[in-house]
């Protein structure tokens, strides 16, 4: 009797389930046709897709066993003893803090807006692209020197003496006559003094400005002239020597030629890579 009652209960449940199946299917079809349900389903799908994309773009910060092993090993080598549990906890904490701060810096676009950060990244990529150039042979250096002779000319130089005045003198003609008569004029203190032996044009330009250089080059030697105005004040000047531009012999400038050659070698590799990078990134010229 018990077995018969159990079988009857089972048959009743199956019959009830079979009877309710069409009802459930009808409810499902109605729900699918409901605009609100469809909207919610689309929202769930979009959110799920966005989460997947976000996770791909921003991989999680994970302190992997490989990272831990490397950092603990480095720490133990540095301190000369096994790392304790506290040491390992601190290593993990410091790693995660540095990684989070680095990612925050990237998220704030500091690599795009901070000039020093940009420069370091650019220099790093330059090195990764170009690598360390091979040591040039003597023949290559001589050829580089011969192909770039204009870079290895000594600039014109001038030797001169000055008397500096902070303010324009009211009796300029009298002072000039006294100087040319061999008299001494005290003048004001100048931070570089009075004598400028064999100064290159670029040095004179940096101190006194280009108009001073032009006046100095056009002036005769052995006579005082002026006063010449500069951004620093007023100057009576006597030119004593003019040295024309001349080639610098290769042995005297070999180290500079070597440096220039290696820079040119690296720049050629960078230029070659840039054409591919322009295709990779959207460049508007």
UniProtKB/TrEMBL annotation:
Pfam family, one: Rotamase_2
Enzyme Commission number: 5.2.1.8
Start and end residues of each PpiC domain: 136-255
Ranges in a coiled coil: none
Keywords: Isomerase, Membrane, Rotamase, Transmembrane, Transmembrane helix
Spans through the membrane: 36-53
InterPro entries: PPIase_PpiC (IPR000297), PrsA_foldase (IPR050245)
Reactions it catalyzes: [protein]-peptidylproline (omega=180) = [protein]-peptidylproline (omega=0)
An example Gene Ontology molecular-function term: peptidyl-prolyl cis-trans isomerase activity
Family statement: Belongs to the PpiC/parvulin rotamase family.
Identification of the protein by name: peptidylprolyl isomerase
Organism encoding this protein: Sphingobium terrigena
Lineage: Bacteria, Pseudomonadati, Pseudomonadota, Alphaproteobacteria, Sphingomonadales
